[in-house]
Design brief:
The chain is of the alpha/beta class and about 375 residues long. The protein contains 13 helices and 15 strands.
Length: about 375
């Protein structure tokens, strides 16, 4: 059958998505652009198509294919519940140029796939998972609503191809559909990170370097109040002090231990200092709050945070109204569900009482986390 070529620069993108989905449903091999390199794609559930892909690539059984998913939820659907670190990296890195190698427990749906498919995409009970960040491939995956096998568009052992002309020269008639997204500006592969429990190893450094992955793997605790000038910055810095004492390190070295503590306000004006009384009260705890500048709660903080502690029930409801999918990581700071009293406009005694409330809540919450 003659290969179909579609160039994204002069065709309807919706038609390109539909053609790609149809080709994959029909068991064909498609060349698709990603945010890293061009890839060869087939449906995971199609044993015959997977077999054709193995033959086309010339790949041996010790080099399994990666899988691309429409969403993080679909990764868990196939692989089972992810570890906290795997959840963190999935939430922060995907969609994007990162592949996560994850262990697949014996009771997961993955092991119900045909044996030949399992062997093609798994090694030592682990699989490589991606959510490509590309405006063509994401809609294709969403419409399919199932994983696809996705591997670089080249023969095994050869370098990645930056142009469709090279792909055609290398793979020829083995391709059924070619989506031409033009030359890739930086044809670097994805960074591959193997996650086992709450530890990780970088198997291949790609677009994202090891220091970036280290920051993305860090545990993040986020405190939220209204203006981020008293309660939440007091909680942030008291938390850093308590963690530094636990780890026997300076507070400014927590990130080296894989922990980041932040605070933000749901109605904050960026760049405002902490209130003078908050600064004065924390001096009694040997904490200098004078350099604090307020931050406004945004999508990135909410997405990256592993624990979001709202100072009051109202703050929690406000966060939920904007980010309804954050419920599992969001709590009222006090374990009993009560509010941390707002000292703004009050006396030093009110600020001291607030700091003591925060310390009590911190002791309970840090025991939960660690």
């Amino acid at each position: 059958m003659e290969r179909i070529n579609l160039c994204l620069s002069n065709c309807d993108w919706n038609a390109a998505v539909s053609n790609t989905v149809d080709a994959l449903h029909e068991g064909k091999i498609a060349v698709v652009p990603t945010e890293t390199v061009y890839g060869l794609a087939v449906r995971l559930a199609d044993s015959q198509a997977v077999g054709k892909l193995i033959e086309l690539k010339g790949r041996n059984e010790n080099h399994p294919f990666a899988l691309a998913f429409p969403s993080a939820y679909s990764i868990e659907d196939l692989c089972g519940e992810l570890s906290p670190l795997a959840q963190r990296l999935t939430r922060r890195c995907l969609p994007g140029p990162v592949s996560l190698v994850l262990d697949v427990p014996p009771d997961s749906i993955f092991w119900k796939l045909p044996t030949d498919i399992q062997q093609a995409v798994s090694q030592q009970s682990s699989i490589c998972c991606r959510i490509p960040d590309h405006p063509l491939l994401l809609p294709v995956l969403s419409e399919l609503n199932e994983p696809i096998v996705l591997t670089s568009a080249n023969k095994s052992g050869q370098g990645e191809s930056a142009s469709v002309e090279q792909i055609i020269a290398d793979l020829g008639n083995g391709i059924d559909l070619l989506i031409d997204g033009g030359p890739l500006a930086s044809p670097k592969p994805s960074t591959i990170v193997k996650v086992v429990g709450n530890d990780y190893t970088i198997l291949r450094e790609g677009i994202l370097k090891s220091d970036t992955i280290k920051r993305l793997a860090a545990l993040m605790i986020l405190f939220v109040c209204t203006e981020n000038t008293c309660r939440s910055p007091m909680a942030e810095h008291l938390c850093e002090k308590m963690l530094a004492e636990r780890l026997n390190c300076p507070a400014d070295a927590l990130e080296q231990h894989g922990i980041v503590v932040l605070s933000a306000g749901i109605s904050a004006t960026e760049g405002k200092p902490a209130t003078a009384k908050a600064v004065e009260i924390l001096q009694g705890y040997d904490i200098d709050l004078s350099g604090h500048r307020s931050l406004s709660l945004n999508e990135t903080y909410v997405r990256f945070a592993d624990y979001i502690f709202a100072m009051t029930r109202h703050h929690r409801e406000s966060i939920l109204s904007s980010w309804c999918n954050v419920d599992s990581r969001l709590s009222v700071f006090r374990r009993d569900g009560g509010d941390i009293a707002d000292p703004l406009g009050g006396s030093l005694d009110a600020y001291q009482a607030c700091a003591e409330q925060i310390q009590t809540a911190l002791g309970q919450r840090l025991e939960e986390i660690f």
